[in-house]
Each structure stands twice: as structure tokens, then as C-alpha cells.
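Journal club prep — side note

Before the paper discussion, L.F. wants everyone to see what a predicted structure for a comparable chain looks like in C-alpha cell form. Sequence:
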Amino acid sequence: MENNTYRRLTRSTTDRRIAGVCGGLAKYLNVDPTVIRILFLVALLCGSLGFWAYLIVWIAAPEDNRIENQ
């Protein structure tokens, strides 16, 4: 029997500051959300890559409660 479970990147509805992107990425990567927030901040300060990456994930990733309700 094949195990077809896979993880899906979603935005967190419980661990959010702005849109839940960092909380969702942290859950997906199994790291502390603070680490992801610091990485986004560093990317933002080094150029606009952090802003655009955050914006793209915000638009593309669904909230985690939408996935559970389906």
C-alpha cells in the first residue's frame, strides 16, 4: 500500500503577524517562525527580494483553514 500523504504550503491562521506567510513557511519547513521572519527581514533590507517573495507567497498560498474544511 502506497502512502500518498504530502505536505502542502499554506498560510497560518493561528501564527500570523500580517498574513500568516512566515507561520505557514515555518510549519512547512518545521522550524521556528521567528527564524523565517528574520530571514524575510534580512532579505527585505538587502533588496526588495524579501518583499516580492512575501507578496507572492501571500497571493499563491491558501490559508490553512480552507484546506481543512474541504
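L.F.'s comment for the group: The chain has a mean pLDDT of 83. Keep this in mind when we get to the figures.
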